[in-house]
């Protein structure tokens, strides 16, 4: 026959709900708890103990809730409830404390128990468990540093808002474009030498597709002009910010990935004067009202005529010299080249079913990094992409 003390404790049904009877079953329960907790030596044994007493499904706590409290007659419920609640706290506490008996205390103490004697480790573990039981509201909270807008996004938003104030809306397009949108519809015919100025990465293994459908990383935001004109009729006034890619080796002024903001205005009777006035205003809004602009003949396949826009050097005030020497920022010319623009080439309207006899418009495109470099006096474009917090937090 098995000895009495070796028989595992089982929760008895209650027939008698008197205070005395409750006291008796509670004592039996806590003494079983004490015995079983003392027997814990390993992590596995502790887990068995925890589950036997606290498992939600059929742990002893759940059982006393069912068998004692729920089964109790109405007039005994209050007293039984209080008892069951008290037992719950006792069990939870005792099971938590039993963890201090586990020989391998690595989980509580840290990574290894090799530091100090087992006794020391136990003491540390007990201390930790004691403090875990209470909440110290005087401790300072965990501070999480706030993030800030990246200087490129910040500059891009600033540019967009200048045009938003002029009544422009915003459009975005895909970064992986087809040859058609990136080149062909912008009047870069296949094999035209103008394509060489915007070399990029093509997605591999597309030789079986017609050229116009092949995918590439867009080299500029101008394809969004085409996408916009395909879906809306004039009047159109949009700015299109986004990321672009070129086959350029990285150095202080080049990056194979950078950002542009494109602009497009198409309506009846839009002239080069509107283009000049708009960009002159935008440059003054971005760099200060004393900045002057000048338009220089240039070439883009999708604009005719085309121009590069220069602003008077913001470092030397357009003089070309400062601090008793040549201004290094404008190479002593007094001007800094900033963006490309022009009147939309009538050939482009042919691709989007606009009537080039009825409408006219202008487009422009500017590099966001270049503008940020000038605005913030940054001397290396690579800093924007390295993710160094010491650099980035200066823009917060
Ligand atoms: N897309 C041109 C570029 O990346 C810039 C541009 C845009 C020029 C719009 C004229 C009009 O170089």
Please characterize this protein's 3D structure:
The protein has helices at residues 19-38, 43-54, 60-70, 77-98, 106-109, 118-132, 151-164, 179-182, 223-231, 272-287, 346-351, 368-376, 389-392; strands at 169-170, 176-178, 215-217, 236-245, 257-267, 293-300, 303-312, 321-322, 325-326, 335-344, 360-367. It has 396 residues and is of the alpha+beta class. A 7-stranded mixed β-sheet has the order 1-4-5-11-10-7-6, with helices on both faces. The chain has a two-stranded antiparallel sheet with strand order 2-3. The protein has a two-stranded antiparallel ribbon with strand order 8-9. Helix 2 (43-54) runs antiparallel to helix 4 (77-98) and helix 7 (151-164) packs across helix 12. Mean pLDDT is 90; it is low at 108-115. Phenylalanine (PHE) binds at residues 220, 222, 262, 300, 303, 340-342, 363-365.
């Amino acid at each position: 026959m098995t000895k009495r003390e070796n028989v595992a404790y089982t929760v008895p049904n209650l027939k008698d709900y008197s205070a005395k009877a409750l006291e008796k079953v509670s004592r039996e329960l806590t003494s079983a708890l004490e015995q079983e907790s003392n027997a814990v030596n390993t992590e596995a044994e502790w887990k068995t103990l925890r589950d036997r007493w606290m498992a939600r499904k059929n742990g002893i706590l759940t059982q006393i809730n069912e068998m004692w409290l729920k089964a109790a007659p109405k007039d005994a419920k209050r007293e039984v409830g209080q008892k069951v609640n008290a037992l719950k706290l006792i069990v939870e506490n005792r099971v938590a404390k039993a963890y201090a008996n586990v020989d391998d205390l690595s989980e509580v103490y840290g990574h290894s128990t090799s530091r100090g004697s087992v006794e020391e480790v136990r003491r540390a573990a007990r201390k930790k468990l004691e403090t875990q039981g209470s909440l110290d509201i005087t401790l300072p909270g965990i501070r999480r540093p706030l993030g800030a807008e990246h200087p490129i996004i910040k500059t891009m938003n600033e540019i967009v808002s200048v045009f938003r104030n002029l009544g422009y809306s915003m459009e975005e397009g895909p970064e992986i474009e087809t040859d058609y949108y990136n080149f062909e519809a912008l009047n870069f015919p296949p094999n035209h030498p103008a394509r060489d100025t915007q070399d990029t990465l093509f997605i591999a293994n597309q030789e079986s597709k017609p050229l116009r459908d092949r995918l590439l990383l867009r080299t500029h935001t101008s394809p969004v002009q085409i996408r916009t004109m395909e879906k809306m009729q004039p009047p159109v006034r949009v700015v299109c910010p986004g990321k672009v890619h070129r086959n350029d080796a990285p150095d202080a002024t080049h990056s194979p990935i950078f950002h542009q903001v494109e602009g497009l205005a198409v309506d009846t009777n839009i002239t080069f004067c509107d283009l000049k006035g708009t960009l002159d205003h935008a440059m003054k809004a971005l760099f200060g009202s004393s900045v002057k602009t000048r338009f220089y003949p240039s070439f883009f396949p999708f604009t005719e005529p085309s121009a590069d826009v220069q602003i008077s050097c913001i470092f030397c005030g357009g003089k070309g010299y400062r601090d008793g020497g040549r201004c290094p920022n404008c190479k002593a010319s007094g001007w800094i080249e900033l963006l490309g623009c022009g009147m939309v080439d009538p050939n482009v309207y042919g691709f989007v079913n606009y009537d080039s006899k009825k409408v006219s418009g202008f487009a422009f495109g500017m590099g966001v990094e270049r503008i940020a470099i000038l605005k913030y006096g940054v001397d290396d474009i690579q800093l924007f992409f390295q993710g160094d917090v010491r650099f980035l937090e200066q823009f917060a």
